[in-house]
């Protein structure tokens, strides 16, 4: 009898365990080992947008105007993007002009593919970043390339920054770019739609303003330069805008843009009033053509920290890598120019 009872108890325990496995573990394992969802940008690239109705669909208009480099690459494949921007500031008797050029060459492979991006301005500032085979190299305008193995996501951020000329323009004008259809057209043999761009009334602005916490200020208040930038961003008032864009019919990517706008900033916070004239021209070419990107011929190896900081630590006797500055030999590395 005892043997029968023990056998029944064992069978009951096994049945209970199997039931638990069926009700708990198996669904969990299916969730854990199920195929991963595609990255958000890949899913966004699969969305079909009605290119011929952008003038009557504000949501689609925002999607098209704010499309980034990663999604564009997923939709188009290889391409070359060029953009030039001209800024003309006037504040009282002072006038400042600045021009900026951007180039992005995207290879095949979608969001994870190779690319080369460059941005530079008339003040001799700029940077260049290259990603080939997953390896990243970067430099300033006149420096040498250095391999970047530790800056996770740096290349992707720079790719977006270089490409976002149109998206940045739309943000500066508070999302008030108004499109009026000019009908179907052709762009380098591709079917497209052309739109005239104007300035929408302020009531139609589509800028998304979230519930943000208050900005923390230093005890002494903002420095004059930061105060001027803050006043511009908070008080800017778009006054005029004209131009045109051409949108690819198949992929909803903006193939060409030409915009010319003006905005003002009224006197505030002790700053005089100012006016900004902003012109943008951009175009995509070599669509579908593999640029066959290659790593730079000469580049410096990745570095844990800049030479200047390491040398200063050695000079003051602060140990690094198990040795101090007194009597130790400081390795001379080639500095970036």
Structure keywords:
disordered N terminus, eleven-stranded antiparallel β-sheet, disordered C terminus, 337 residues, 28% helix, alpha+beta, globular
Per-chain topology:
Blueprint: H1 2-33, H2 40-45, H3 58-65, H4 69-76, E1 79-91, E2 94-106, E3 115-121, E4 126-132, E5 135-140, E6 146-147, H5 154-163, H6 165-172, E7 177-187, E8 190-199, H7 224-235, E9 237-248, E10 254-265, E11 274-285, H8 307-315
**Share of residues in strands:** 25-35%
Whole-angstrom Rg? 28 Å
- Principal-axis shape equals globular
Counting H and I runs of at least 4 residues, what is the number of helices? 8
Largest sheet: 11 strands, antiparallel
Q: How confident overall, as mean pLDDT?
A: 83
Counting helices, strands and paired strands, the structural category is: alpha+beta
Order of helices and strands: HHHHEEEEEEHHEEHEEEH
User: What topology, given as strand order, has the largest sheet?
Assistant: 6-5-4-3-2-1-11-10-9-8-7
